[in-house]
Specification:
The chain has 15 helices and nine strands. By secondary structure, it is α+β, with helices and mostly antiparallel strands. The strands form two sheets. Strands 1, 2, 3, 4, 5, 6 and 7 form a seven-stranded mixed β-sheet that branches. It has a two-stranded antiparallel sheet with strand order 8-9. The structure holds flavin-adenine dinucleotide. The site of flavin-adenine dinucleotide (FAD) has 18 residues, from strand 1 and helix 12.
């Protein structure tokens, strides 16, 4: 074995032991040695905290065993992210970025020499990596990015501006996306990914501005100027096109979101139940109020559905699979998991009352920290539209315009077809305005999530939790489809002030 394949110290531990040591370390760091509120409220992370956490080798779960890691088993990756997000969503996102947006892409498409060096430095040098796709003028429309590269001999010269790359200024490695430029400066349509070793002088990324991000204080964000030269071996080698490689990378990352959501929702449930039991209102425990029970039952439904997503991903996704074609499960899981995170934290804040609005309250931080998950890696509005478009395309091909009949046969909804009777008993229009596509996508993704929940039930998960989650999601689907089938035509009046001033209408003692 050469020096680059020396295993991580904890690589051979049985997973239950690895996980329980990791959980104990997090508890010690976030509760015993440092005050969790202070950690959540200050930017960055004290170096000793990260050093101690990294001593448990959490990132080794993403690394194949032949390179000294724990083997890249999806269930281990998901469980590590969940253990992290129970204590800190920002920590979980930090490790999610490292794994899904850096180590996994390098593992699938990196040159052997690059993989070896990267894995070694991550395991033994505690290095970190992130991904830069977004540019100030190109976020949702990332394929139009302007960062470009030219090639001379064995070197690629990459130039451009990127922003919002998580771990700005911290990461030792970056994956940077760019389009090829010809001698006239014309940009090609495909996208390439380059591994950048920011510790090398020619590959140094300049942080032009550090952002004051609203939440996730632990993670630095900002604007970066790219003018670097990287060896040819550091370009990722796609199986076909770079755009398909990007889809594979993003779909795999999206389908792994439930890891980050799981611990977060688990913690919200624990905090919600504890608070409602302890808090007395009107002489009785908050827990006994009917509306409070409704909120807690919904949190529990989210916990169950997220568990179903974790189980699905763990069972069906491996690093060997190309995920480019799996847009439906990936986009469903990303959108619904992140909507559940935001709705759960909003509900917890409501239950906490005024206490929740203190800057140092867990509920308030959770609300702000979970919000960008609905924006990054595909804005949820756009992903809902894409889910509808993919389903409508499949229905058109199958010459089946009836939604209920289609869903009764479809692999991601057939287990819950009985529950959709009456709800999906209509023909769809194959050409619909965008807002309708988004609403339909919301309903469909919740139906597919119900199917995942039913699968979890078949595997032996607690039946009362499964039934309760299915009922709550069924109610949501019914509400969304009622709105979808109604009129949705309103548009904004830009000159709305004209005739839109209530005070100008005149009131007693105040003429109009
Ligand atoms: C906390 C955080 C972390 C991030 N981490 C990373 C990272 O690690 N690496 C990285 O490269 N980027 C990262 N990003 C950037 C993120 O991916 C972009 O913010 C996102 O893609 C949206 O791009 P934008 O901000 O330019 O918004 P815009 O593209 O301007 O979109 C704003 C909104 O407009 C609407 N919209 C846009 N297009 C359409 C459309 N076609 N139809 C209907 N509505 C539309 C949507 O509501 C969308 O949310 C991060 C962002 C945040 C906030």
């Amino acid at each position: 074995m050469d020096s680059h394949s020396v295993p991580a110290p904890s690589a051979s531990l049985p997973y239950p032991e690895f996980l329980s040591r990791y959980r104990d370390k997090l508890k010690q760091m976030f509760h015993d040695r440092a005050d969790a509120n202070n950690l959540a409220l200050s930017r960055g992370l004290p170096p000793f905290v990260m050093r101690e956490i990294r001593s448990c080798d959490p990132l080794s779960v993403w690394i194949p065993s032949e390179y000294g890691g724990r083997g890249g088993k999806t269930a281990e990756c998901i469980a590590m992210l969940a253990a992290s997000s129970y204590e800190s969503l920002a920590l979980s996102l930090t490790f999610g970025i490292n794994g899904a947006l850096f180590l996994q892409p390098v593992g699938r498409y990196g040159d052997e020499s690059v993989k070896r060096a990267v894995y070694h430095r991550v395991i033994h040098g505690k290095a970190m990596g992130g991904l830069m796709i977004t540019e100030p003028d190109y976020g949702s429309d990332a394929l139009s990015m302007k960062t470009s590269y030219t090639t001379s001999g064995e070197t690629h010269h990459i130039q451009g501006t990127k922003h919002w790359g998580g771990l700005t200024g911290w990461a030792d490695f970056w994956l940077i996306t760019a389009r090829p430029a010809d001698s006239e400066g014309q940009l090609g349509r495909d996208i390439d990914f380059f591994v950048c070793d920011a510790t090398q002088p020619e590959q140094h990324v300049v942080v032009e501005e550090v952002y004051e991000n609203l939440g996730l204080y632990m993670i630095p964000y900002g604007k970066n100027l790219i003018d670097i030269r990287v060896p040819a071996a550091q370009r990722l080698k796609p199986e076909s096109t770079g755009i398909k490689m990007m889809l594979d990378i993003l779909h795999r990352s999206r389908i792994e979101f439930p890891g980050m959501a799981m611990g977060f929702l688990h913690r919200i449930m624990d905090e919600g139940i504890r608070h409602c039991r302890e808090r007395l209102v009107g002489g009785k425990s908050l827990f006994t109020y009917d509306q409070v029970q409704e909120r807690l039952a919904r949190l529990q439904a989210y916990f169950t559905t997220c568990s179903a997503m974790c189980a699905f991903t763990s069972e069906n996704v491996s690093l060997a699979d190309n995920m480019a074609k799996h847009s439906i499960p990936a986009n469903t899981i990303k959108t619904v998991a992140t909507d559940m995170m935001q709705e759960a934290s909003q509900s917890l804040l409501q239950l906490f009352g005024g206490k929740g609005y203190r800057l140092d309250s867990f509920a308030g931080r959770a609300t702000v920290d979970s919000r960008p998950f609905q924006i990054f890696e595909g804005s949820n509005d756009i992903l809902y539209q894409q889910i509808s478009e993919a389903i409508l395309k499949t229905m058109r091909r199958a010459k089946e315009p009836h939604l209920g009949r289609f869903l009764g046969e479809f692999e991601y909804s057939q287990r819950v077809a009985d529950r959709l009777k009456g709800l999906a008993d209509f023909q769809v229009d194959f050409s619909q305005p965008q807002r309708k596509l988004v609403e339909l996508g919301k309903a469909l993704s919740r139906i597919f999530s119900m199917d995942l929940t039913a699968r979890l039930g078949e595997r032996g998960f607690r039946p009362d939790l499964i039934e309760s989650a299915l009922k709550i999601f069924q109610t949501d689907v019914s509400r969304i489809l009622t709105g979808y089938r109604g009129s949705m035509e309103e548009s904004v009046e830009v000159d709305y002030r004209d005739g839109g001033d209530w005070l100008a209408l005149g009131y007693p003692g105040v003429p109009g």
